[in-house]
Design a protein that fits this description.
By secondary structure, the chain is an alpha/beta fold. Helix content is about 35%, strand content about 20%. The chain is built from 13 helices and 18 strands. The strands form four sheets. It has a seven-stranded antiparallel sheet with strand order 13-12-1-5-3-17-18. A hairpin with a 2-residue loop joins strand 12 and strand 13. Helix 4 runs parallel beside helix 11 and helix 9 packs parallel to helix 10. It is elongated. The mean pLDDT is about 95. The site of ligand PCP has 16 residues, from helix 7, strand 11 and helix 12.
């Protein structure tokens, strides 16, 4: 058992050693071992339903799961990360002697449930923003130990960038940031703060001025324009809820006052309390968004793990369909067909024969057999698929 911890987190080796496991798994493993029972099994992950009124979700977390099982005598089939799935879609299957992976079910589901929830919420915010940039600003809302995981999945889900340095490092992207209220409060003078930022920050850092600290946003915007001039890239409104009133009207005014004085190129960046619905309401005048809580505290996808074959016989508990499965997606109409593994590829009701098998072999006997795509590649896949999907707001 690990020594007294300063931070209450499990280390990579704790997870790899199977210590992040609900105790009943090690107890039943003990009983199975003592009874000489260790069948060859196939276990499947799927979600019986999706959170809220979500009609689709984005599959994420697979890369960590593959690292968890590296070196184990198991084979793994799964959707590609970034793949769109629906309730009841089998998204992952592990094959091997049950005791070779039994105590890892907790970690396996933990990796997939939270990552897929975050990636899906990021994709919904990105869809609602209708092409405008959406940045992940939510590391501060969660335990810092998981900030890189949160923001990696926010990025692959569609966010255009992430704020925390270690998260950006993980995905090999530049961190994104503006300026904080505390910065301006330290100067006790907005104009001086803006000028100092402009004077000292390297030119590659976009000049995004926070304009709601002391005064009405439209005057804050003009102060920023005066202080930074043509290099002003955007103004950020993080207006406290007590002052928001008709927020779209405030943003419209800022837009008017900037345009009136020739600052048409200056963009308007919004943050604070955002989620899909508010984003869609502010698109008329907003150019970019910083989303924190809504993405980092996204509902998890309630995946469950179930054995579907024991000793190569289809065998599952009540309420779960037995046997290994394949999911065929019609590339023309995006309809899915869930069929027994090995069944003939179907023809779609839309008569298209272009159906893609979604469950791919990623690991054989604990060895990766397929290259892991970069976060940017996975993000491109999500954005491509998002164009085909509707979200109810
Ligand atoms: C917050 C900070 C976060 C934003 C809002 C996320 O502003 O900028 O990135 O908010 P959300 O979780 O509601 O989506 P402040 O708390 O005012 O912090 P700061 O002064 O540092 O911008």
């Amino acid at each position: 058992m690990s020594k007294r911890k300063k931070f209450f987190i499990a280390s990579e080796s704790d997870i790899k050693k199977g210590l992040v496991s609900d105790v009943y798994f090690s107890r039943i493993s003990e009983v199975l071992k003592a009874s000489g029972v260790n069948p060859f099994t196939k276990g499947e992950v799927r979600a019986g339903s999706l959170p809220k009124d979500w009609t689709f979700a984005v599959f994420a977390g697979l890369e960590e799961v593959l690292h968890l099982f590296e070196g184990f005598p198991v084979d793994i089939y799964a959707l590609e990360e970034g793949e769109i799935f629906h309730s009841e879609t089998p998204v992952f299957r592990i094959e091997g002697k049950y005791l070779s992976y039994a105590v890892y079910e907790t970690a396996l589901l933990g990796f997939l449930c939270q990552a897929s929830g975050i990636a899906t919420m990021a994709s919904r915010c990105k869809k609602a923003a209708e092409g405008r940039p959406v940045y992940s600003f939510g590391a501060r809302r969660m335990h810092p130990a998981i900030a890189p995981m949160i923001e990696r999945n926010a990025f692959i889900g569609g966010c255009d960038g992430v704020a925390a340095i270690e998260s950006a490092h993980l995905i090999k992207e530049e961190p994104v940031g503006t300026m904080s209220h505390s910065f301006i409060l330290c100067f006790q003078n907005e104009k001086e703060a803006f000028k100092a930022f402009h004077k000292i920050m390297p030119s590659k850092i976009k000049r995004i001025a926070l304009i709601d600290t002391f005064q009405d946003e439209k005057f804050g915007a003009l102060t920023a324009a005066e202080a930074i001039g043509p290099d002003l890239y955007a103004v950020r409104l993080d207006t406290p809820s007590s002052r928001r009133g008709n927020f779209l009207k405030i943003i419209e005014e800022v837009r008017w006052e900037l345009d009136l004085r020739g600052f048409n190129r200056v963009k308007i960046f919004i943050s604070g309390g955002l989620s899909e619905k508010l984003i869609s309401e502010l698109n008329k005048h907003a150019d970019a968004y910083g989303v924190g809580t809504a993405i980092s505290n996204a509902p998890v996808v309630d995946f469950s793990f179930d054995l579907v074959e024991v000793d190569n016989k289809p065998f599952s508990k009540r309420g779960k369909t037995s046997g290994a499965k394949q999911v065929y997606r019609c590339l023309k109409c995006f309809r899915d067909y869930i069929l027994p593994w090995g069944a003939k590829k179907p023809t779609c009701e839309c008569d298209s024969k272009e159906l893609e098998p979604l469950l791919k072999l990623w690991m054989q006997k604990g060895k990766l057999v397929k290259e892991l795509p970069s976060p940017r590649k996975i993000r491109e896949k999500v954005l491509k698929n998002l164009n085909r999907l509707e979200i109810k707001l």
